[in-house]
Amino acid sequence: MKATVWAGRNRVQVESVPDPKILNDRDAIVRITSTAICGSDLHLYDGYIPTVKRGDVLGHEFMGEVVEVGKSVGNLAVGDRVVVPFPIACGACSACRRDLYSLCENSNPNAGIAEKFMGHSPAGLFGYSHMLGGFAGGQAEYARVPFADVGPLKIEDDLTDEQVLFLSDILPTGYMGAEMCDITPGDVVAVWGAGPVGLFAIMSAYLLGASKVIAVDRVPYRLELAEKIGATPVNFAETSVLEELRDITAGRGPDHCIDAAGMEARSGSRPVDAYDRVKQAARLETERPHAIREAAMSCRNGGTLSIVGVYGGLMDKFPIGAVMNRSLTIKTGQCHVHRYMRPLLERIRKGDIDPTIIVSHHLTLDQAAHGYEIFKNKEDRCTKVILNPT
Known about the structure:
By secondary structure, the chain is an alpha/beta fold. It is built from 13 helices and 17 strands. It has helices spanning about 40-45, 95, 110-120, 160-165, 170-180, 195-205, 220-230, 240-250, 270-280, 290-300, 320-325, 335-350, 370-375, and strands at about 1-5, 10-15, 30-35, 60-70, 80-85, 85-90, 125, 140-145, 155, 190, 210-215, 230-235, 255-260, 305, 330, 360-365, 385-390. Strands 3, 4, 5, 8, 9, 16 and 17 form a 7-stranded mixed β-sheet that branches. The chain has a 6-stranded parallel β-sheet with strand order 12-11-10-13-14-15, sandwiched between helices. The protein has a two-stranded antiparallel ribbon with strand order 1-2. Strand 14 (about 305), helix 11 and strand 15 form a beta-alpha-beta unit. Helix 5 crosses helix 6 and helix 5 (about 170-180) packs across helix 12. The longest helix is centred in the last third of the chain and has 14 residues, at about 335-350. The radius of gyration is 20 Å and the shape is globular.
């Protein structure tokens, strides 16, 4: 089959790789109809996630048709149309029983590697390094889905792939980012990063009762899209974010700040931006923590920092003094996607959320390298790329 594979820093290519096979009675094989390039994929593309190897199949946002099931998979049948969550979860361990699916204790066969980096291992993830399981991803014609009796969500109506594909990751991630803020009616929320996750966090914050949502980014067309869905845009390349947020909130700061940017954030200060870019390139730190630094300094006293942008290791000069002395609460995590898929599917059916608004490009799988380039470099007003293997 054809698949998008990692070919070195800033390089992906579509190659022929072996077809996936049933390895466990709880597996399924899915023929992929739609898959997407995620902002998290760019961290692998740029070489900042350790234990990625040449030839690894990328991608963790995918859906398709079941073509084979293991003997223990009783909830799926050949021909079912499914969306697959990006964390792999067993459904039975202590974490899964508490709906903390991205912390599954049984799905990462390489837990020992993750423990060296993080202390304890999270769940295995599709297409996201050997540290997190070494599982082949979904930017391919077919994928093996472990624990298929737990993860995939059947789509039994006529909703299009474009409407439901993002239930695999970014829609639940944006929603969880807003949910972790414990928003009460009238709250002001600021979101760093007006990419796909940030846009879904904005929509979700309004669904959960926010009176105003502020989008912080530097790319004009992304800020235009954020404004289209109701956010107040702030361009950090043109203004002091801290001062702008004080002005908007009468000096208090936002009640909640969501970091949807993560480890490759940019800064409006050229010296600070250069400092962190050089340190990251030299591997003296793994993150560029501009967004979370700024969020910590901007949030009102007693407010919440919600972090759903991906971080991989260590950062420099995090303002822990501001967090501690001003009683800020930090909540974070890879999204527990399984928990949110069905409720958000109902939101889509009712018209509360329109996921298609973020899609800018449909490409074939063979065009994956082009998709990565325009998404990374924000060319051609690219906000989200869907790859269609068929």
